[in-house]
Structures are given as C-alpha cells and as structure tokens.
Amino acid sequence: MSYLFIDTCAGAGVALVNPEDPSETLVKVNPDGKAQVEALSSLVADVVQEGGRPEKIVVSRGPAPFTGLRVGLVTARTLGFAWDVPVLGVDELLLQAQAAAGVLSGADCPSRARGETPRWIVSLMDARRHEVYAGLFRPNPAGGPVSQCGTDWVGSAGLLKDITQGWDRDFTGFADGRVFLVGNAATQITGQTVDVRFADLARAATSLVNGAAGDTEAPQELALQSTEPQYLRRPDIQQKS
C-alpha cells in the first residue's frame, strides 16, 4: 500500500510513501509559496508516474493562509474522487511536531548525542501579517504520536511565551534545553530549532494516520478523517483595513 501526501501550507510538496518501508519515499517539492496552483498538478503527475497510483491520500488541512491551503485540499479531494480512494486530513502543527520528534529520536541527532531529551516541541508556521500559527506538543517517550497541550493558535510571536505557559503550566520557556522549535517560522523565537525535510513530514503523516486507524472512536481518529480547512482567522481579503 502506498500513500500520497500533499502539503501546500508553505510552497507545494507531494510525496509517495510506502508505510511498510518508509525509506521508499518519492518527493517532489516547489518551495515557491506563491505558485501552489501552477506547481501542484505537475508535482502530483511526476510522483504518480514514477511510483504508481496510491491507495490513500493524506493532506495537510492547516492552519495556513487561505489560498495555498485550499489548493492542496481541493486537489486531494478531487484525486480521491477520481481514483476512488480515501482522503484523510492532518493538522499541520501536529504534523510538524511529529516529524520533529522523529528527527530528534534519530541516532545521529546532535541533541541526542549531547544527552538532551526533548520535553516540548513548539510548532511555528508563518501566518503572514507579522503573525505565526503555533502549537505546543509533548513527545511520546515510547516513540508514538506526540500529544498537544492546548489548541492551535494564531497571533504575534511576541505573545507566545504567555500563551504557551497557559497551555502547560510546567512549560519553563524557550531557553530551556528541552524545548525544540520546528516550522518555517521557528526562527522568530530564540531557541533550539529542528530541521525537518519534506520526506520527514510525509512519513510523519502516514504514521499518524496508521496510528489512528485502529480506533475509529478516538478523537485523534475523527480529527484525522476531516479534510475541512483550518484557517484560525478569516481570509486576508475579508479583514478590515
């Protein structure tokens, strides 16, 4: 079984993943955040031509800016209908944190070599207008899915310290060596960052879907099934000047 992963939260990326052997991952990425519409269809065509038609589609449902997010979701739904395969959505901030947890657990990870055990992962994605989408997560020591503290949030990065302490009263701040930042807005906060590749995101997405599939009543499963977009605020065109 293979999964097609689509993410248009920042640029456009497509991957074909074999869950039984995640090393077999085909990746095509266009990092231009203003060219998702033009790029996505050709990326999908290239991956499917090389790796074949998938049995499932997994798509990021944000939070992300309006236009790019819609491109990915509409494409995923259209392909799912045309190919008659299931389409599952996954939260982008959860996805970033899960991918970061995988990188941090790797034997060649520098922080692991220094004996630093991650206690929190903060996902930060660019929301434009000098704001970020953010979420606070705790890694699973057993290597399973990360758990979220609080909810997805959008606002100024300068307010994030107070927000995160509200999500988890044990949170000690971004200077703590056990806190790791991930996402394309991670550099807006001073702290340790984790670099994840698109292949890491794709493998994290399939692991989250597979992990939730065993319990159809679990809230995580219901969230993963949804392909409704998460904007967290109205589209820019609707904002008052």
From TrEMBL:
Tree of life domain: Bacteria
Alphabetical GO biological process terms: tRNA threonylcarbamoyladenosine modification
A Pfam family reported for this protein in Swiss-Prot or TrEMBL: TsaD
Comp. bias (Basic and acidic residues): 231-241
Residue ranges constituting the Gcp-like domain according to the UniProt record: 55-135
Chain segments carrying region Disordered: 212-241
Name this protein carries in UniProt: Universal bacterial protein YeaZ
Organism: Mobiluncus curtisii (strain ATCC 43063 / DSM 2711 / V125) (Falcivibrio vaginalis)
Designated gene of the protein: yeaZ
